[in-house]
Every structure is written in structure tokens, then in C-alpha cells.
């Protein structure tokens, strides 16, 4: 049977006031036996692929989407809670807890659930040589590659599962090496690239989306040539384009947008949808209210140095709101990207951006700079769309200086979208940041939760955790 890999404990771990209560479905985790492999038909594959998409962020994206933003330096959070709960304040201290104090087990299990669905699709199509199902095969390979990328970035080496009905813990073996996992990811994404159609909707992986993932991977792994190649392939696509309407990247209804290449959507959510998604986490508390009357928690805001880095007129800074934070007794700047989402829309869908075209432009510029070339063309293309002033080559005395500027541009562009922690590692900022929190390099990765270690004694805990 097709097995749903599910979280054993602690499904409702976020601070109670932060998100909607766990649904009845989440309160009753059971294996998904709706479709048996022996009765599976080709027409069912698209449904399985859709199911895999929904599980990328554990079927409840709001709990895992902000994980590494709060872990890194762009976001400051005063959210509190006990150590056995999802606790952004402890994230800020960079001290993850193997008992799943950050719900990273939810993050882990969500990825493996999606991988399990993808494996079923991949193996079914390949075993029957269904060449007419190439799009489904490409999407499943892309999903598997993306989910292993999430896992390897969070935990370093993880167990690779390729079978249709494999639970990583039940394999009773230690994790694969980080290099083996990256090789698997790159193989899957390159195969997906050959099978997927050009971009047409952000709700499905496309050729451009997986090419951009490959560019991201190669950049983070130090291969500037391959990073540049894949970034330029995406930029050269006639199906994708940067948008001047920056806020459309965060709205569900954005039919003219060709920049948001891939997203996860939650919904339709219940009548209490004003508490869904990122809105309550990032938005200010009273006296701020949405037109519907909802308010945020007011305990999570943007690093002041980053706020001050935006130029006057930059449209990205238009998605900020200054307000007094009672917890610290001063005015702070709140991130409103997720407040303008379709929570104001009758459709009541919540949007979580995962891959945007602007990243390809900044990867291309960074790849050049890391080869001692100052080329402002791609960098300026993003800034022009954000109504920021263009720069010339002469504005940067060296490639190293330009790299610093690119790092800041990425912070301004992708604030709250989950990319900062990997950027900090690549730019050499992560370990100094951890040191400022009284931590060391062992906190570059999250711990495997105790539940997984108990299920698989051969799984080796990451260094620095007990």
C-alpha cells in the first residue's frame, strides 16, 4: 500500500496564539491507504503528484515555512514558550532541541511524506515504461529532488529512500553522506529538467524552476560556472519574466505574474483564516487590525540594520509597517509581505513562495563576482524592477565589495522567504552569528529528533546534540 510517512508526536507545536489550531485531520494521523499500488492506474498519477506537492511542507506550511528565517539574522522574534514547543525565541538563541522544540521533526517528516508519494509515481511510470506520463514523472523527480534539498540543508546527511513504500526509519541503517544526497538531488533535477514543460503556473514545477534549483545548489556548493550556466538558462526563458508588481509574488490571484516560479498554497482555509499562514507571526499586534478585524502577535520583526539598507522609494520597503512593540517598549518594523496575501480574498488561500525568478539574476551576478568579475547587468535588472537606483561598475572598487552588495540585495529581496541561512553559510556569516549567540558550528545543522533516533538506532545524531 502507499504509505503516508507521518509525524508520531507533537503535531500542534507552534505557540497557541500564533496559528490556527490543528485541524481534526492533523489530530488523527493515520497511514494513507486510499490507493493501493495493485489498483493504481495511470490516471491516478496526477492526483498522487498533487498530493506530493501538498506534503512538501508537511501539509501545514505555516509551521515549517519560517524555520530558517527565524534561525538567521534577518528576523528578530520575542515569541516565547516552553522548550517542548515551537519556540522562535530559542531559534534566535540557535539552540535547537532534539526533543523537537522547534518542530523540525515536522519539517523532516513532511519532506519524507512528499518523497514517498514521489517515489510511488516514479517507480510506477518507470516500471511500466509509460512515456506518455513524462510530465508526471518530471514533477515527481523534481519534488523528490527539492525535498532532499530541504533535508540535506537542514540535517546534512540523511537516509535516501527510493522505494515506493519505504519509511527511512524502517530501513534501519545510518544516513547517507551529504555528498551522496547532493548527487541524488542533482541527478533527479537534471532528469526532471529534460521532462518538464516551460513555466506556465507557480503551482507545479517547471523546467525553469528546477533549473533555478540547480543554480542555487551549484552556487552553495562553490561551482560558479554551473551556477551561472543554469541561472542564465532561466533568465533566457521566454516563459518567465521579472515583475514590477513586487507584491503580486505573495498574492494567490496573480495571473499576470511570471516571476513566481513555484509556490505552495494552503487552502481554502476555514472561516478563521485571518489566523492562518504567516500573517499572525509577522504582523504587528494591536492597535493594528486588518479590515476583517484580525491582528498579529506583534512579537516578530525585521532587523533594524536591514530596514535601514532600503532606499527611499524601493517598493520592497513598502511592505513594512512601523509600530510600537510592547515587549521591548520601542517602535520596530514589521514584515507585511504575508499580510497582503489572499487572506483578504474571498478565495481564502495562503501563498508560500518557494522559487522566484529574481534569484536567478542575483545568482548570475554573484557567480561572476566570485570569479573576480564585477558585472552589474543582472543586479541592476532586479533593482530596476524594485524602483531602486542602478549602480555602475565604478561604484564597486573590487569584486569582493560587489559581493557584499549582492549579499545585501539578496537580504532585501528574499526577506522572510527562507533563503537567508544558506546565504549566511555561503558568505561566511553563519559561524560568527552562532558565536554571538554562545553557540558553535554544530548549530549549522538541526538535530534529528529523538522519535526518529528511537525508531532507527543506526541513525547517527548530528554533532553537538544529545
Please characterize this protein's 3D structure.
The strands form three sheets. The chain has a two-stranded antiparallel sheet. Strands 2-6 form a two-stranded antiparallel sheet. It has helices at residues 24-27, 45-55, 67-71, 88-92, 104-128, 134-155, 178-195, 207-220, 224-235, 279-282, 304-308, 358-369, 377-385, 399-414, 420-426, 430-436, 450-455; strands at 75-77, 260-266, 300-302, 320-325, 330-335, 350-356. It is mainly alpha-helical and 466 residues long. Keywords: Cell outer membrane, Membrane, Signal. Pfam families: SusD-like_3, SusD_RagB.
Q: Indicate the low-confidence ranges by residue numbers.
A: 1-34, 81-87
The overall average pLDDT, rounded, is 86
Proportion of residues in helical segments: 25-40%
Q: Give the oligomeric state.
A: single chain
What fraction strand?
5-15%
- Radius of gyration, in Å, reads 21 Å
CATH architecture of one domain: Alpha Horseshoe
User: How many DSSP helices?
Assistant: 17
Strand order of the largest sheet: 1-3
Give a short account of the largest sheet.
2 strands, antiparallel
Task: Describe the SSE topology.
Layout: H1 24-27, H2 45-55, H3 67-71, E1 75-77, H4 88-92, H5 104-128, H6 134-155, H7 178-195, H8 207-220, H9 224-235, E2 260-266, H10 279-282, E3 300-302, H11 304-308, E4 320-325, E5 330-335, E6 350-356, H12 358-369, H13 377-385, H14 399-414, H15 420-426, H16 430-436, H17 450-455
Helix pairs in contact: 2-5, 2-6, 5-6, 6-7, 7-8, 8-9, 8-12, 9-12, 12-13, 12-14
